[in-house]
Model the fold of this input.
Amino acid sequence: MAVTFRQLEAFIAVAETHNFTRAAERLRMAQPMVSSLVRELEAELGFRLFDRTTRRVQLTAAALEFLNDARRLTSDMDGALRRARDVGARRRGHIKVGAPPLLAAALLPKAIREFAQSSPGVAVSVVDRSLAAIHELLTSGDIDLAVGTFRRNEDGIARIPLVPYLIALLCRADHPLAAIPRPRWHDLAGVPLIALRRGNGIREQIEQGYAAAGLNAEPAFELDQLTTIFAMVEAGFGITVLPLYALSALPTKSLVARELIDPMVTREIDVAHREDRSLSPAALDFVRLLRLNATELQSPR
Done:
């Protein structure tokens, strides 16, 4: 049997009050219980803690040496319990969340702002890297949550669906395609495309949409940065195809988004975590806010 917190509390109370009855009153328990806890502690330690007289309870020499250690142990335990309760009540903690840059810009700022209002003691840090890098950080345990489009039924990864999103046409407001409320993929034939380079998940989705319409996705420009793509579209060099939420991440007055149909290419945004790691109360609340804010990603501009 190991030394318990209640045994140490009983010992300290008797040591400070020099009386079992007063110690019991302080601890709000019956006096026989205090006596029993002290006897259990004596048995565990292997020495007597108190010399008892008819008028007073006196610490033994060995107990006097042990008293400071007992106080430190209970203080450490009190602090640990207080910190644990703070974590449970979302008064302290740290959440690390990762997402691809475009999705991070579109979804995370508002969710983090709202979370800071409800849980001001919990810090949130963001990692904005490629989806492959985010996935690696999640599996290695370096982040708590990952937001993105993940493969289904992957071992060790738990997924919480947030919202489906559409692939959309982004073009200048004065472009002929902007006048079509719901353009078809086939309408993109012959129109210069400005796209992300291959190796990006969004580029793969674009090629799927073009192929379904019997077209080849042969970009006039292939670029690495979305800001450069937007600038080229604004300058009139062509159109681009991106998730519908792109304009909320990189707002601009001169560009509009239009849902592409025939076919409608949709993907699911998930928040993922490792199956072997339970989410803290704070992380669960953050996921709740992500789900509330994710619905805004479905609205075209």
